[in-house]
Amino acid sequence: MTSTIHRLLYTLSLMMLTLSAPAQKQQDFAGRYMQLYAEGSSLTCQTVSPTMMQKMLQLTPAHTDDATHEALKRLKSIRLVTQSHPDDAKQAYDNALTLAHNNPARYRLQKEQDNKKIFARTKGKHIIEVVLISLNDHRFNLVDLTGIMPKDFVDSLIK
Minimum mean pLDDT among 46-50, 103-107, 136-140: which range? Predict the structure, then answer.
């Protein structure tokens, strides 16, 4: 009987590992966007690593409010996708909005103003990803923030 229980526990453990592996490898919005639309385009993607984030925190000006500084400390990464070619910027913007709208269970529109839209992905009570999509002067920008952020941080991004 003991060996039956051990085999059952072993099988359950393997199942849990198999099920949790895909969840740990989820792409962020910028990664998925680049996978779908970057080939053959002039899109660029730059990533700010956790090490660089630490350096940025050391350089944060003294006049930064506490909420912004606290939010920056909780960020895991920042990815910036840009399309500066004027003829392709509108299509890049439309593609980003389509990707967000096609994933409503994952990304929810939080704020919008003119050609700026902020989508957020939540887990429980926490925001774990914020995506700012904008089109200004024929230039497309997508800023993807991952980490654990307070909800009032989203309000400050639209400004």
Answer: 46-50
pTM: 0.76
3-state secondary structure the chain: CHHHHHHHHHHHHHHHHHHHHHHHCCCCHHHHHHHHHCCCCCCEEEEECHHHHHHHHHHCCCCCCHHHHHHHHHEEEEEEEEECCHHHHHHHHHHHHHHHHCCCCCCEEEEEECCEEEEEEEECCEEEEEEEEEEECCEEEEEEEEEEECHHHHHHHCC
Reported as a single tens digit per residue, the pLDDT across 80-125 is 999 979 899 999 999 999 999 999 999 999 999 889 999 999 988 8
